[in-house]
Write a structure and sequence with these properties.
The protein is 30% helix and 18% strand. By secondary structure, it is of the alpha/beta class. Strands 24-27-28-29-32-31-30 form a seven-stranded mixed β-barrel. The protein has a six-stranded mixed β-sheet with strand order 8-7-4-5-6-23, with helices on both faces. Belongs to the aconitase/IPM isomerase family.
C-alpha cells in the first residue's frame, strides 16, 4: 500500500530503522515506516530526463523539484513562469490547520489518503505556568478537537502525533525529512526540513487535500536564489545570524516565488539543525522554501535519529543531492561567515536587521524600550539539542558568578525527544536555575499562545525571542510590545543582562561579589553523546483498515463545523461591489485572521470569521477594526460590516498594499473572506501561499497593473470586475471604479491564474472542481 502511495517505480528499496535504535526507544517505531521507503532511483531517473531536455547543469532545488514531476518527459519548465505538476512524497499538518484540511478531505468523499500523512498537535497549548500543567489543561480544553483529529486520522489513514509530542517541524526533522524528499505541510515554516536536504514547502489545507487525494500538486516553477557561504561560524555567531542577515538583505518579499539554495564551503561549518534554523526562517523572506546540499552533518544526524540506512543510500546517490557544477542562479548572494556578526532583528518586522553591537544605540535613538522584560528561547526555529546546549553554556557562566536572569525567561523544547534528552543531560536544570520556566513541547508564545500577565495591553515594552516572526501583537496580543528575534544564546545573554544595550562580545556583567566579568562565547554539542532519549510514546499509527472508525462533528459545537460547498461563479462579470476596507501598509495573515485566542475556532468557519481583518489598518481613518458600513452610514467592526453586506446580497472586495498575506500559511485568511461574501482581493502584490489559498477558495487575487492605482481607490467606491466571460491565463481583467462624485475610471488588473485555476474559480472552489471530476 505504501509503495502505491508513494508511486514507487521499479527498484524501490525498503529500509529499516536500526535495531539498536528500536531497542533504545520507548516509543512506537511505526512512525518511521513511511520514510522507510526511499526511492532515489526514480528521483535520479527524473533528474536525468530533465537534465537531458534542458541541456544544462541543475541546481539542487531543481533536481529535487523536477525529480518529483508528474510527467518529466513533457512538463514545460521555465523558472518563474510555468506551473509544475508535482508528486510530493508526503503531507504533514499541524492541529490548527489540520482541522480545516481534514474537514475538506471529509467533504471530498474519498475513503483514505493516497500518500503518507501526519497530524501534529502543537498549536493549541497555551503557555501559562509550565509545561506539565499547561499540557494537562490543553488536553481538557481541546478534548473535542483532539478527538476529532485522532478519529479522522484513524479513519482516513493519517498518523496522529498527540499533544505534548512537540512542534511539527522538529518532529518532521527527527522522523520524516531526508535528503531528496518532497514534503508539503500546512504551516509556513515547513521549509525547516531543508536543513536535512529536503524540499519542504508550506501550503494551505486545500493544497494538502489535493496531495492526500492523489492529485498532482501545482506549483509555479520557482526561481532559485543562491546564497554562497564561505568562512566558518565561530564565537557568538550562530546559524540564526545567517538568516537574520539574509532577511535584512532580501526583505520580507525578496524571496517570493523563489527557492533559496545555500551552497559553498561555509556550509560544512553549520550543523544539520543549524541548517534547519536557516531554512525555517526563510519563510520570513517569502521564499517558497530553502535547502542545503547533502553533507556529512546530515549523515550524522540521520544516524543519530535511527536512520543510518537512509544515510547510506543518500551517500550512494549523493550526486543527486548536491547542485551540479556550473549551475546558474537567478540571484546570487555571498556571505563570509568569518565576518558575520551576531544579529538581532526587529521590532515589528523580521527583516529589520541590526548587529547586536549596535541595537542598544539604535533603540535609544528610536525610543524603543531598552529594558528586556522577557527572553524566550525555543520554537520551531531554535529548539534543537545544540541550541539548548549553547544557551545553557551561557546560563551556566552567569550561575557560576551568582547571577540569574533580570528578565523573565522561558524555554520551549521542540519535541518530546529534545525535552527528555536535555532533562537527562542537565540542560533543563541549568536553564531553570538561571530563572527559566520550561514550557510544553509546543508552539506557545511564538504563535501567540501565551497568557502573559506581566504587562497591560498597550504598555510599551521589549521582549527578545529566538522565534522567527515578530509582527505587531503576534506573541502576546499587545500592539505595544517591541519583539526582537535573535539566536537562543543572545536571548539568554540579554535576559541575564536585562537590557538591549548589552553586547556579550565586549560588555561586562557584574557578579554577585561585585567583580566584573565577561561571558565566554557559547558552546554546545551538535548532538548528544549518549544518543537521544525518545521520551514518552506520543504517536498513534492509523489502523490498517479505518473504515469502521466513526468521526463525529456535533451540529451544536462551537469548535467544529462541517463545510458547505461555496457557490459557483455567476457566469458573468462581478458588478458594483463595495470596498469593504482599503488596507494601509503591512497586512499579514495575522492581520487577516489572528491566531492566539482565535486558534480555538480554526475548525469552525463561521466562528473564526469573526476575526476577519480585525488587525488591518483602515486607510480612511488609520483605525484598526473600524470601517464604515455604506448601507447604514455607521461605523462598525470589519466582520460585522461584511456580514451585513452578505445578508443584504451585497458583494465586496478588499484593497491592499504590497506583499499582502505575508506570513503564516493559514488558509482561514482566504476562507473567511469567501464565507462572508468577498469576491476579490485587489492589491499591489501578494505573498505566494496566500495568493494560492485565495484561488483555491474561489476568490480572485488580483494585482494593480500600475501599483500607483492603489491611490485611486476611495473607501466609498464601488468596483466592477470586467472580462470574466473571457477569463484566460495571461489576459488582464478590468476594474471599473465608480466614485461617489459620479466619475469613473477603468484600471487594469493582472492575475496569475492558469487554466486549471480558472476552473476552480468557475466551480466555486478547488474542492468543488475535484468533486466535479470524480
Amino acid at each position: 500500500n505504501l509503495q502505491q502511495c508513494l508511486a514507487l517505480g521499479h527498484g524501490a528499496r525498503r529500509l529499516h530503522v536500526s535495531a539498536a535504535y528500536r531497542a533504545k526507544a520507548k516509543v512506537s517505531m511505526s512512525r518511521f515506516e513511511p520514510t522507510s521507503f526511499v526511492n532515489y532511483e526514480r528521483l535520479q531517473s527524473n533528474i536525468d530526463i530533465v537534465r537531458k531536455r534542458l541541456n544544462r547543469p541543475l541546481t539542487l532545488s531543481e533536481k529535487i523539484v523536477y525529480g518529483h514531476l508528474d510527467d518529466p518527459h513533457n512538463q514545460e519548465i521555465d523558472r518563474g513562469r510555468t506551473y509544475l505538476r508535482l508528486r510530493p512524497d508526503r503531507v504533514a499538518m499541524q492541529d490548527a490547520t489540520a482541522q480545516m484540511a481534514m474537514l475538506q478531505f471529509i467533504s471530498s468523499g474519498l475513503p483514505k489518503v493516497a500518500v503518507p500523512s501526519t497530524i501534529h498537535c502543537d498549536h493549541l497549548i497555551e503557555a501559562q505556568t509550565g509545561g506539565v500543567q499547561d499540557l494537562a489543561r490543553a488536553k481538557e480544553v481541546n478534548q473535542e478537537v483532539y478527538k476529532f483529529l485522532s478519529s479522522a486520522g484513524a479513519k482516513y489513514g493519517v498518523g496522529f502525533w498527540k499533544p505534548g509530542s512537540g512542534i511539527i517541524h522538529q518532529i518532521i526533522l527527527e522522523n520524516y525529512a531526508y535528503p531528496g524528499v518532497m514534503l508539503i505541510g500546512t504551516d509556513s515554516h515547513t521549509p525547516n526540513g531543508g536543513g536535512l536536504g529536503s524540499i519542504c514547502i508550506g501550503v494551505g489545507g486545500a493544497d494538502a487535500v489535493d496531495v492526500m487525494a492523489g492529485i498532482a500538486w501545482e506549483l509555479k516553477c520557482p526561481k532559485v536564489i543562491g546564497v554562497k557561504l564561505t568562512g566558518t561560524l565561530s564565537g557568538w555567531t550562530s546559524p540564526k545570524d545567517v538568516i537574520l542577515k539574509v532577511a535584512g538583505i532580501l526583505t520580507v518579499k525578496g524571496g517570493t516565488g523563489a527557492i533559496v539554495e545555500y551552497h559553498g564551503p561555509g556550509v560544512d561549518s553549520i550543523s544539520c539543525t543549524g541548517m534547519a534554523t536557516i531554512c525555517n526562517m526563510g519563510a520570513e523572506i517569502g521564499a517558497t522554501t530553502s535547502v542545503f546540499p547533502y553533507n556529512h552533518r546530515m549523515r550524522t544526524y540521520l544516524e543519530k535519529t535511527g536512520r543510518g540506512q537512509i544515510a547510506a543510500l543518500a551517500d550512494e546517490y549523493s550526486d543527486s543531492l548536491v547542485p551540479d557544477e556550473g549551475c546558474e542562479y537567478d540571484e546570487l548572494i555571498e556571505l563570509n561567515l568569518d565576518q558575520l556578526k551576531p544579529h538581532i532583528n526587529g521590532p515589528f518586522t523580521p527583516d529589520l536587521a541590526h548587529p547586536v553591537s549596535e541595537v542598544g544605540a539604535i533603540a535609544e535613538k528610536n525610543g524603543w524600550p531598552l529594558e528586556v522584560k522577557v527572553g524566550l528561547i525555543g520554537s520551531c526555529t531554535n529548539s534543537s539539542y545544540e541550541d539548548m546546549g549553547r544557551a545553557a553554556s551561557v546560563a551556566k557562566q552567569a550561575l557560576d558568578k551568582g547571577l540569574t536572569c533580570k528578565a523573565q525567561f522561558t524555554v520551549t523544547p521542540g519535541s518530546e525527544q529534545i525535552r527528555a534528552t536535555i532533562e537527562r543531560d542537565g540542560y533543563s536544570k541549568i536553564l531553570g536555575d538561571v530563572g527559566g520556566v520550561v514550557l510544553a513541547n509546543a508552539c506557545g508564545p511564538c504563535i501567540g499562545q501565551w497568557d502573559r500577565q506581566d504587562v497591560k495591553k498597550g504598555e510599551k515594552n521589549t521582549i527578545v525571542t529566538s522565534f522567527n516572526r515578530n509582527f505587531t501583537a503576534r506573541n502576546d496580543a499587545n500592539p505595544a510590545t517591541h519583539a526582537f528575534v535573535t539566536s537562543p544564546e543572545i536571548v539568554t545573554a540579554l535576559a541575564i543582562a536585562g537590557t538591549l544595550n548589552f553586547n556579550p562580545e565586549t560588555d561586562y556583567l557584574t557578579a554577585a561579589n561585585g567583580e566584573k566579568f565577561k561571558l565566554d562565547p557559547p558552546n554546545g554539542d551538535e548532538l548528544p553523546a549518549k544518543d537521544f532519549d525518545p521520551g514518552q510514546d506520543t504517536y498513534q499509527h492509523p489502523p490498517p483498515d479505518g473504515s469502521s472508525v466513526k468521526v463525529d462533528v456535533s451540529p451544536t459545537s462551537n469548535r467544529l463545523q462541517l463545510l458547505e460547498p461555496f457557490g459557483k461563479w455567476c457566469g458573468g462579470d462581478l458588478e458594483d461591489m463595495k470596498v469593504l476596507i482599503k488596507v494601509k501598509g503591512k497586512c499579514t495573515t495575522d492581520h487577516i485572521s489572528a491566531a492566539g485566542p482565535w486558534l480555538k475556532f480554526r475548525g469552525h468557519l463561521d466562528n473564526i470569521s469573526n476575526n476577519m481583518l480585525i488587525g488591518a489598518v483602515n486607510s480612511e481613518n488609520d483605525a484598526i477594526n473600524k470601517i464604515k458600513n455604506y448601507l447604514t452610514g455607521e461605523y462598525g467592526q470589519v466582520p460585522d460590516v461584511a456580514r451585513h453586506y452578505k445578508a443584504n446580497s451585497v458583494s465586496w472586495v478588499v484593497v491592499g498594499d504590497d506583499n499582502y498575506g505575508e506570513g503564516s500559511s493559514r488558509e482561514h485568511a482566504a476562507l473567511e473572506p469567501r464565507h462572508l461574501g468577498g469576491k476579490a482581493i485587489i492589491v499591489k502584490s501578494f505573498a505566494r501561499i496566500h495568493e494560492t489559498n485565495l484561488k483555491k477558495q474561489g476568490v480572485l487575487p488580483l494585482t494593480f497593473s500600475n501599483p500607483s492605482d492603489y491611490d485611486k481607490i476611495r473607501p466609498d467606491d464601488t468596483i466592477s470586475i470586467r472580462g470574466l466571460k473571457t477569463f484566460a491565463p495571461g489576459k488582464p481583467l478590468t476594474a471599473l471604479v465608480k466614485h461617489s462624485d459620479g466619475s469613473e475610471e477603468a484600471l487594469e488588473l493582472n492575475h496569475t491564474f492558469n487554466e486549471t485555476q480558472i476552473e476552480w474559480f468557475q466551480a466555486g472552489s478547488a474542492l468543488n472542481r475535484m468533486k466535479e471530476l470524480q
